[in-house]
Specification:
9 strands; two-stranded antiparallel sheet; seven-stranded mixed beta sheet; alpha/beta
């Protein structure tokens, strides 16, 4: 069984690394168009799309089957382009010039950059979430990103390599990751977290109308470390252009009941991200096991 698993992971890794380097060397727009085409043609027929359909039917029970199919195709189109974008982030930010990214609410990002406190920028798997870190860099804020390691060790190395092209520092959720994150925040640094994934050790909080296990860390950091939370949203507005919106910092008044405060704060964060998904459902990654 271990041999079969190793062989499977090896094939996955060869395919993933091959696709990464293919997109890396292709002209950007050609690679993006190719990724979108492959996603639209092949993605809806993959077994993963069955999970996406189940999730969509559960969250939007009144959607017609044709609309669900349309959302899934858009999701795969976005994911195909995202794969190309991961290999060439310099198309958007070369360390000096920001290109093909519109920033809304820059003053909110600058506020937490200059307030002398640590801070957390949070988002979900919408559009190309990594574009948020590039936009932040262009405004003079380097981020540490918490990353959930891939099960395949060779694919995991690729994912870390790709993310380090777009963000200065990566820490993983395994081992000492949460402690390292807390240490960085205590030193006044800023982190980027994606908070829409299922967490086995979380608490059940409504998300898109259904209870989903939700990580408590971001709420606890806000409540115990006085750590500002800044919502950030990435939207694909055309095949090669994005809008990043930095919203005002979250305002939440604790009651002193830590369990109740944690739940209510997480509920407000889930509701916010859920509203973004409802506006642009084809740009969220419906492939996650978010509710099961």
């Amino acid at each position: 069984m271990n041999i079969l698993k190793t062989i499977r992971q090896l094939f996955e890794a060869v395919g993933s690394w091959g696709i990464f380097w293919l997109f890396h060397f292709l002209p950007f727009k050609l690679g993006s168009t190719l990724g979108a085409g492959l996603g639209r043609l092949g993605g809806p027929h993959l077994f993963l799309s069955k999970r996406a359909r189940i999730n969509l039917k559960m969250c939007f029970p009144n959607l017609a089957p044709a609309k669900i199919d349309s959302i899934i195709k858009e999701m795969w189109d976005n994911f195909g382009r995202l794969t190309a974008e991961y290999s060439q982030p310099s198309f958007f930010w070369d360390g000096v010039h920001l290109k093909n990214i519109e920033i809304v609410g820059a003053e909110n990002l600058i506020q937490i950059r200059d307030d002398g406190k640590p801070g957390i920028i949070f988002s979900g798997h919408l559009g190309n979430w990594q574009i948020i870190t590039l936009a932040a860099q262009s405004l003079g804020l380097d981020l540490t990103q918490m990353y959930r390691s891939a099960n395949n060790p060779w694919v995991n190395k690729l994912m870390i390599k790709a993310q380090k092209l777009a963000v200065k520092n990566i820490i993983t959720k395994k081992d000492r990751g949460p402690r390292e994150l807390l240490s960085l925040l205590k030193k006044g640094n800023h982190a980027f977290l994606l908070i829409d994934q299922k967490m086995g050790e979380g608490v059940p909080v409504p998300f898109l109308g259904h209870k989903a296990m939700t990580a408590q860390g971001v709420a606890r950091l806000y409540l115990t470390q006085n750590c500002p939370l800044l919502p950030a949203r990435c939207e694909r507005v055309s095949p090669y252009k994005f809008r990043v919106t930095f919203y005002p910092p979250v305002k939440f008044t604790p009651t002193g009941n830590q369990e109740e405060d944690t739940y209510n704060l997480l509920l407000s964060l889930n509701t916010l991200i859920g509203s973004w998904i409802e506006e642009r459902p084809g740009q969220w990654l419906w492939l996650h096991r978010r509710w099961t």
